[in-house]
TrEMBL record:
<dbReference type="GO" id="GO:0010230">
    <property type="term" value="P:alternative respiration"/>
</dbReference>
<dbReference type="InterPro" id="IPR002680">
    <property type="entry name" value="AOX"/>
</dbReference>
<dbReference type="InterPro" id="IPR038659">
    <property type="entry name" value="AOX_sf"/>
</dbReference>
<keyword id="KW-0249">Electron transport</keyword>
<dbReference type="GO" id="GO:0016117">
    <property type="term" value="P:carotenoid biosynthetic process"/>
</dbReference>
<keyword id="KW-0812">Transmembrane</keyword>
<keyword id="KW-1133">Transmembrane helix</keyword>
<keyword id="KW-0813">Transport</keyword>
<dbReference type="GO" id="GO:0016020">
    <property type="term" value="C:membrane"/>
</dbReference>
<keyword id="KW-0560">Oxidoreductase</keyword>
<keyword id="KW-0679">Respiratory chain</keyword>
<keyword id="KW-0472">Membrane</keyword>
<dbReference type="Pfam" id="PF01786">
    <property type="entry name" value="AOX"/>
</dbReference>
<keyword id="KW-0479">Metal-binding</keyword>
<keyword id="KW-0408">Iron</keyword>
<dbReference type="GO" id="GO:0009916">
    <property type="term" value="F:alternative oxidase activity"/>
</dbReference>
<protein>
    <submittedName>
        <fullName>Plastoquinol terminal oxidase</fullName>
    </submittedName>
</protein>
Length: 238
């Protein structure tokens, strides 16, 4: 089922958008956000019903959706969403995939994570090929304003949060031109793959945590006793 879902998505993107890279990336990034929304929806439901509460999972998945949002905003800034037909196709596919992943995540969460792993692997390969074929052209164009804000000038907490394969603040990419922007997007997809793999581990419910999580060593509790006030203190004027 997962191979079929991914195969349909890849077929549509590769066939309909063979010579239109920015609309192709727009559709890809619109759909790529959806599974993270689905994961969070189910996790919120579980928390509401008292089944399971794990804040780190919600934080990381929201950070992943935040990262994909900025990929999408970059593609829109590059004109990938100009066509009404492209917008309609992307949003219809996103709606369909959302409900499929919600149902799949409730029944087989590891399979739902494997779906997203395959989508992100395809995204990495797509961006990597685009970079190889258009290096000189991309290096001659300036970085987009949204990319500069997200990767360099903005608050990088959310950028660090989705990269569970390394320590927070370990990666600080450059954004000097459009080639750098696509390098960063491609490398983001690699980090998503690592996070999806971590979510599929048998002990993930115990071991998975936010990159910002800090395990503090046990400390001794010190009790400070407050001395009883003396008679002079009690009768002293305020």
């Amino acid at each position: 089922m997962v191979r079929l879902l991914v195969g349909i998505l890849v077929f549509v993107i590769n066939v309909l958008y063979r010579d239109r890279p920015y609309p192709r990336f727009y559709v890809l990034e619109t759909v790529a956000r959806v599974p993270y929304f689905a994961y969070m929806s189910v996790l919120h439901l579980y928390e509401t019903l008292g089944f399971w509460r794990k804040a780190d999972w919600l934080k990381v998945h929201f950070a992943e959706s935040w990262n994909e949002l900025h990929h999408l905003l970059i593609m829109e800034e590059l004109g990938g969403n100009k066509s009404l037909g492209d917008r309609l196709l992307a949003r219809t596919a996103a709606l369909v995939y959302y409900w499929i992943i919600v149902a799949l995540y409730m029944v087989r969460p590891r399979v739902a994570y494997n779906f997203m792993q395959q989508v992100e692997e395809h995204a990495y390969a797509t961006y990597n090929q685009f970079l190889t074929e258009n290096e000189a052209e991309l290096k001659a164009q300036p970085a987009t304003a949204i990319a500069i804000q997200y990767y360099r000038d903005g608050d990088l907490y959310m950028f660090d949060e989705f990269q569970t394969g390394q320590k927070a603040t370990a990666r600080r990419p450059k954004v000097d031109n459009l080639y750098d922007v696509f390098i960063n997007i491609r490398d983001d997809e690699t980090e998503h793959v690592k996070t999806m793999l971590a979510c599929q581990q048998p002990d993930a419910q115990l071991s998975f945590q936010s990159p910002h999580a800090v395990t503090l060593p046990p400390t001794e509790v010190q009790v400070v006793l407050t001395p009883e006030p003396t008679e002079e203190v009690e009768n002293a004027p305020l």
